[in-house]
Amino acid sequence: xxxxxxxxxxxxxxxxxxxxxxxxxxxxxxxxxxxxxxxxxxxxxxxxxxxxxxxxxxxxxxxxxxxxxxxxxxxxxxxxxxxxxxxxxxxxxxxxxxxxxxxxxxxxxxxxxxxxxxxxxxxxxxxxxxxxxxxxxxxxxxxxxxxxxxxxxxxxxxxxxxxxxxxxxxxxxxxxxxxxxxxxxxxxxxxxxxxxxxxxxxxxxxxxxxxxxxxxxxxxxxxxxxxxxxxxxxxxxxxxxxxxxxxxxxxxxxxxxxxxxxxxxxxxxxxxxxxxxxxxxxxxxxxxxxxxxxxxxxxxxxxxxxxxxxxxxxxxxxxxxxxxxxxxxxxxxxxxxxxxxxxxxxxxxxxxxxxxxxxxxxxxxxxxxxxxxxxxxxxxxxxxxxxxxxxxxxxxxxxxxxxxxx
Length: 406
Hints:
Largest sheet: 3 strands, antiparallel
Distance between the termini: 48 Å
Number of helices: 16
Radius of gyration: 22 Å
C-alpha cells in the first residue's frame, strides 16, 4: 500500500480499507468513480467514452454537474495509481488552458455574457486578475484620485449588472457562479472605496499591498497571486461551481497571516472560540488559490504514526491540511509531531526535491501548507510545547463581522 501511495500521493488521505477497495477494482475505470471525491476537492466524476468498457476519459465533472473538457482525451490504462496521476495532471493542464482562454476572451462581448458563458472557476479567477490589473492601471495613471472615483463607479455598475443577471433565467450552475462572483465583487468594491477614501496614489501603499492580488504572468504563462511579500502560484485544483465565504476584515487578516507564514515556510494557527470561521477561512483561501485542502479533526486518540501518514500525503501531493482542534492531541504525541514538522521545514528551506521522512525518502512539493486551529481554554486541552509553537504564526479570531455578513 505504501508503494501505491507514493506513486499517487492523494492515496495517503484514504484509509487502508478504502485504498484496498479501489485497488481491487483497478481494472474498471467505472468502478473507481465513487472514490474520486475522496481524492480530489470537487472532481466527483469522469466522463468516459460511450462504450461501457471504454477506457477513454473525455472530461471531468464537479459535484454540481459542471463539466470541463480535458485538453486532450486520456486513456485509463495500466495500474490505477498511474492513470489517476494522469487524471490529476490533465485536471491541472486543462484548467490552465480554460483559464488562459477566459483571460483572453474577458468581457467579450460584455462582462455579463462572459460570466454566463464561462466556467465558474474561470469566472472567479479571471475576474480577479482583470480587477487587479485595472486597479493598478488607475494607481499608475497621471490622475489616480479622479480615476479611482470613476473606477469605483464602474465597480458599482458591474455589481448591478450581476444583480440583473441573477434576476434573469439562469441554470443552477450559472447561478452559483454568479453568486460566488458577486461575493468577490462586493469585497473588491469595498477595497476600491477604501483606496479612494484614503487617497491612495501609489501601488506600494500598504492598503493595496495587503490585498490578495492576482496577476497573469506572461513570462511564466501562469497565474500568480501576491500578498505583501508572499508570491503563490495558482494551484489549478478543480473546484467546480463552489460556494464562497463573505470576505470580512477578519478573513483578510487571517489570509494575510497564512500567506505571510507560507512565504517564510511556516504554518499558521488561527485560534479563537467555536464558530468564528477558523477552519472555513483557511478552506476558503485554499479555494481562492485552487489548492487541495484536507481537513483533519484531531482527538486524543491520535498517535504519531497517523500524523506521519497525513504529513507524507501533504508533502508529496503539495496539498494543504487544516488540523482542527489541534490542542486535543496528547502532549507526548505533540512533541513528536513538532519534530516531524521541523524535518519538513528544514527540507523546504533547503529547497530540496526529496528528503528523508520517518525512515522513507519522499518527494517534496513546495506548495504544501500545514495549518492548525485551536480552541483555547477548555478542559482536556493541552498547551502547545514551545518547539511546536515556533513553527506556526498565530492569528486570533474572536468575533466574526456579523453585520457585514448579513
